Amino acid sequence: MASSTVDDDVMLLNYNDAVIYTRDLRLVVENDWLNDSIMHFYLELLQQESSEGHDYFMDPSVVSFFMQHCNDHEDIEDFVTSAPFPKDHGRIFIAVNDKMSAAADSGASWMQHAPRGCATAQGTHWSLLLMTIGTLPSADKISVGAYHFDSHGECNLKVAVEIATKIAKYIYKSNARVISCKTPQQVNGYDCGIHVLTAARVLASLNNIDFHQQKHFHEQELHKTIAVQHARNPGPAMRQAISDTIVNMASDQEVTFKRGDAGNWIWKTNCY
Q: Which residues does the UniProt record annotate as the domain Ubiquitin-like protease family profile (predicted)?
């Protein structure tokens, strides 16, 4: 467990505007649900590691802003100008949360019809939406594919459809049919974010394989990584990897880190 004496508001790092505080690191090491900050940080790591210049790993807060506040032509035009969407070829990786819905404020009615164990109106479930962008060979038109990976059935399918539809319509003047992909299911109630980040890393590494033509291959690779290599639970290894990365990148000298008996990180505030 992390030290309870440290200030949770100490900023540990700012990595390309992905800001991590001690409170965020605590979520990782204490097996808690990952928040927007951790999701953004790891997706930004994947963005910088990507050898494919046409991949775009969207900041979850940017997705929420697009869905809930970009409602007219001027808003969307400004948004497109500032966001690095691939133009005619590439992939978009989106960490989906139910709070991103344009109707998130009316979540109470949504909750009445939500499958058991799914997210609340405040947003407690992550899934991955992978969108592929290409040009149809027979016409000068953008083709948009959308594939949803959810570690808890189809909890976030409705929101994923909303996001894919809006991006396809307003960014690419096209349409997209969201396809639910076979996804290893989480074994607890808090590792949905871990599954999303693991899936994003696996799928991002397959950058030379056409997803539309090789959908089953991508599903098999994801299954091999999560279900086989991690025995259906990528949580421990991924949480260790994420926390190690944060600690190694942390620049704030107010905090001292050390390994606990279980191998996880503990920390305390330095006194001067």
A: 18-203
CA gap 85, 198 in Å, rounded: 22
pLDDT in tens, the chain (272 residues): 455 455 788 899 999 999 999 999 999 999 999 999 999 999 999 999 987 678 999 999 999 999 999 988 889 989 988 899 998 889 999 999 988 987 764 444 334 444 444 433 357 899 999 999 988 776 678 899 999 999 999 999 999 999 999 999 999 999 999 999 999 999 999 999 999 999 999 999 987 777 777 888 889 999 999 888 888 899 999 999 999 999 999 966 678 888 887 777 888 876 54
Rg value, the chain, Cα: 19
C-alpha to C-alpha distances, 108 to 63, 67, 103, 105, nearest whole angstrom: 21, 18, 10, 8
Closest C-alpha among 7, 87, 97 to residue 55: 87
Backbone angle region of 266, left / alpha / beta, with phi > 0 → left and psi within -120 to 50 → alpha: beta
What does each C-alpha distance from 67 to 36, 71, 170, 203 come to in angstroms? 15, 8, 11, 24
Alpha helices for the chain (secondary structure H): 22-29, 36-49, 60-69, 73-82, 107-112, 157-172, 192-205, 215-223, 235-249
Q: How many Cα atoms within 13 Å fall on the side-chain side of residue 147?
A: 24
- Say whether 250 sits in a helix, a strand or coil: coil
Q: Which domains are present in the chain?
A: 1-32+235-272 (no CATH), 53-233 (3.40.395)
- For 252, phi then psi, to 5°, come to -75, 125
